[in-house]
């Protein structure tokens, strides 16, 4: 299912509108959904804003040049109307936690523009057969209903996390727990795991977010179905349980990163790479298979200098004979102090370590045979990209769904080792002594993931098996491939019962 498939051969194509949430971890998989749907014969309209479109410009150009029927539409984002600085059109551009609320308000206002746009285009082109929208854009529910367009939610996190959140709410578990750091079991989970309240509290269930939360559940109720970036063979029991709980069709169509087959598409995912990909590849080519640890914490997590130093110490002191590493340090974490420390660190680790400042071509790196470990914050995209590549994880969750994803990776799938983080951190200001993982812990986990003896071998074997299943799910006749076809049929009105 890539750009070479049978697009344009259907005389009566489905028209599907995609509305991603404006954060890298949400935009990237939705671009993959666009590519997959268009490759399978649907007409796709992808709605975003100018700043976000500019970021994914290389991939837009590539999709347009391959004549896939995806129309990228840019509508102005009402930042100023919601009291945001101009150009603040993505969560990673929010400079302080106080601006998250205005950002969500701006999104609702953006909904009015989307409605006007869809009303106008529905009269001029093939009317939209359905809207697939990110669950964070729950304002789409009301817009779609007012226009009479069926709507399907795209859940970005793992099914395991969505199911946990659902069960915690159903049993009102958090309401009865006082201690934020007491371990408890999530009830009714097919594969039981233990978590802490502080790790699973959702921002929208906190005081002050009642309106957003109400709209979220209302839209979940009115949606025709749910699309997820996962695959049946990975989360079978969770998916079955969630289907029963929610009483709707749930279609896993991932791992979406596998929609990018060639190196260029992988290298362009999300944003332009901050490093020359040719240089990066020759560096990786010079390393032995499974000898490189890739260290990156997604697009939103921040690492203050105190944390960077511990990560650096752990990587530097890890004593596997052939261990190398690639470490991504985000633009937002850079400062003079960081740069001073980092340049000395680079000197000391020359040859075995590479630091990428800014944006790394992650899917490309994970897919290289030299990469044997991934220290990750357990964002679901990163987690699933590691699974699709058969790479063992060192898990270091920060916030949101990440602690629950860690449990899935470490306790259920058994393809990762926990660094031992307990306390959530989001913005740098949240960094406390308790949240600081020490360099010594980092070293131990790196060594365990990269070597780890017989246990380590078993872990790697399991990871490789999941990668095989992931590829199969996306191939013609595979579970995710078939689900994608069902969605297209639904959008054409041929599958109203959502088989
Ligand atoms: N990503 C990337 N290069 C980077 C950082 C992130 O390509 O330097 C991609 C990564 O491959 C993934 C997404 O950005 O697709 C991050 O999503 P995830 O759910 O892992 O975490 P979030 O950024 O939402 O916390």
Short description:
Helices cover 43% and strands 14% of the residues. With 499 residues, the protein is α/β, with parallel strands linked by helices. Residues 23-25, 28, 269-270, 296, 298-301, 328, 359-360, 362-363, 379-382, 385 line the site of uridine-5'-diphosphate (UDP).
| Mean residue pLDDT | 92
Radius of gyration: 22 Å
The percentage of residues in β strands lies in: 5-15%
Approximate shape: globular
Number of strands: 15
Q: For the terminal residues, how far apart are their CA atoms?
A: 21 Å
Descriptive terms for the model:
UDP_glucos_trans, disordered N terminus, Glycosyltransferase N-terminal domain-containing protein, binds uridine-5'-diphosphate, alpha/beta, 6-stranded parallel sheet, 499 residues, single chain, UDP-glucosyltransferase activity, 7-stranded parallel sheet
């Amino acid at each position: 299912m890539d750009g070479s498939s049978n697009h344009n051969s259907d005389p009566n194509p489905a028209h599907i509108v995609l509305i991603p949430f404006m954060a890298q971890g949400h935009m990237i998989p939705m671009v993959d959904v666009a590519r997959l749907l268009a490759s399978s014969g649907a007409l796709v309209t992808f709605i975003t804003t100018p700043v976000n479109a500019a970021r994914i410009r290389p991939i837009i150009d590539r999709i347009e040049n391959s004549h896939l029927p995806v129309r990228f539409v840019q509508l102005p984002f009402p930042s100023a109307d919601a009291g945001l600085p101009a150009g603040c059109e993505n969560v990673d551009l929010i400079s302080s936690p106080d601006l998250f609320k205005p950002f969500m308000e701006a999104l609702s206002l953006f909904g009015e523009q989307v409605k006007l746009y869809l009303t106008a285009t529905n009269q001029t082109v093939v009317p939209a057969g359905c809207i697939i929208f990110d669950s964070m854009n729950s304002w789409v529910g009301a817009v779609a209903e007012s226009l009479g367009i069926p709507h399907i939610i795209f859940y970005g996190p793992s099914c395991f996390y969505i199911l946990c959140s659902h069960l915690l709410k159903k049993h009102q578990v958090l309401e009865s727990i006082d201690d934020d750091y007491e371990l408890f079991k999530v009830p009714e989970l097919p594969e039981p795991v233990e978590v802490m309240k502080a790790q699973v509290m959702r921002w929208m269930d906190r005081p002050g977010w009642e309106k957003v939360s109400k709209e979220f559940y209302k839209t979940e109720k009115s949606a025709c179905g749910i699309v997820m970036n996962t695959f049946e063979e990975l989360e079978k029991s969770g998916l079955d349980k969630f289907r029963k709980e929610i009483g709707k069709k749930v279609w896993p169509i991932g791992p979406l990163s596998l929609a990018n087959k060639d190196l260029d598409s992988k290298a362009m995912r999300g944003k332009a790479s901050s490093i020359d990909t040719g240089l990066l590849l020759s560096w990786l080519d010079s390393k032995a298979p499974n000898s490189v640890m890739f260290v990156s914490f997604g697009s939103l997590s921040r690492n203050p200098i105190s944390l960077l130093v511990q990560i650096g110490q752990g990587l530097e002191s890890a004593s596997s004979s052939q261990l190398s590493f690639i470490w991504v340090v985000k633009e937002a974490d850079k400062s003079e102090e960081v740069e001073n420390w980092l340049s000395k660190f680079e000197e000391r680790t020359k040859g075995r370590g590479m630091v990428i400042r800014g944006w790394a071509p992650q899917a490309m790196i994970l897919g290289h045979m030299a990469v044997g470990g991934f220290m990750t914050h357990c964002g679901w995209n990163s987690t699933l990209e590691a699974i699709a590549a058969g790479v063992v994880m060192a898990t270091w969750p920060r916030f949101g769904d990440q602690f629950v994803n860690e449990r899935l990776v470490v306790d259920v799938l058994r393809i990762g080792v926990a660094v031992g983080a307990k306390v959530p951190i989001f913005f740098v200001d949240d960094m406390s002594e308790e949240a600081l993982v020490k360099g010594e812990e980092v070293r131990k986990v790196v060594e365990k993931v990269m070597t780890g003896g017989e246990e380590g071998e078993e872990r790697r074997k399991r990871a490789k098996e999941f990668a095989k299943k992931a590829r199969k799910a996306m191939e013609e006749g595979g579970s995710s491939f078939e689900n994608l076809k069902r969605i297209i049929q639904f959008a054409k009105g041929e599958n109203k019962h959502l088989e």
